[in-house]
Write a structure and sequence with these properties.
Elements: E1 37-50, E2 53-62, E3 76-78, H1 80-90, H2 95-98, E4 102-112, E5 119-125, H3 156-167, H4 173-202
Antiparallel strand pairs: 1-2, 1-4, 2-3, 4-5
The structure holds zinc ion (ZN).
């Protein structure tokens, strides 16, 4: 695509809405259907820059930098609905109470847009404590038997899923790399053998002629 503007093509996991210049978590940051569980790291108050100008706001920061379904966990501006939910959940909204607590977020599609009065998406806090998500433990690496650890910006669960899909077994990043190299070496070997065979067939010394009839065998 060519325009006179300087655009950068998004690839892979990058998504629309992610590049907007907001310092704060927005509904666009959360994958459809995901309800991220985040740990409150701190409570903040001050002038924040919004599309409509600067306003004094309450803000929550979180311990997690990224969780499944959220590429980048940014601080959350706390509106009055969410402030009420926090009070309901934990009894009060004091820093000493809230820091270290886990909350479950979801995207509410029926939030009144303060700018145009229409409906928009907004982040809400579930009015119940996060349910412990029962997940199968991540299997160990089939090749080295070690625990699969996060690598290349992907968590262990993602790596296990990816390698099962591509190699049929869960692998750590190092073993997946080895298998990839082995596969490409085997391919090169195969090509070399095919080339050698072709060479042999074309080699005049290998052409046998029937001494009686003179026919090429
Ligand atoms: Zn391994």
């Amino acid at each position: 695509m060519m325009t006179k503007d300087r655009l950068r093509q998004l690839t892979g996991d990058e998504r629309l809405g992610q590049m907007r210049e907001s310092e704060y978590l927005g509904a666009e940051d959360i994958d459809d259907g995901v309800e991220p569980v985040l740990t409150i790291a701190g409570l903040w108050y001050g002038s924040v820059t919004l599309q409509r100008g600067k306003e004094n706001k309450d803000v929550l920061s979180f311990t997690e930098e990224r969780v499944p379904g959220v590429m980048q966990v940014r601080p959350l501006i706390v509106n009055s609905t969410n402030r009420k939910t926090l009070r309901k959940l934990f009894g009060d909204a004091k820093a000493s109470t809230l820091v270290g607590k886990q909350i479950q977020l979801f995207v509410d599609h029926n939030v009144r847009d303060p700018q145009d009065g229409g409906m928009t998406d907004g982040i809400r806090i579930r009015p119940y404590k996060p349910r412990v998500q029962k997940q199968e433990p991540v299997p160990p690496c089939t090749d080295c038997g070690q625990e699969i650890t996060p690598a290349m910006g992907k968590d262990a669960r993602w790596l296990a899923g990816y390698t099962i899909k591509h190699y049929g077994v869960p692998l750590c990043a190092a073993c997946a790399q080895k298998r990839k190299e082995a596969a490409s070496a085997a391919e090169t070997q195969q090509e070399a053998e095919t080339a050698a065979e072709t060479q042999r067939e074309l080699d005049p010394e290998h052409i046998q002629v029937d001494p009686e009839t003179g026919e090429v065998l």
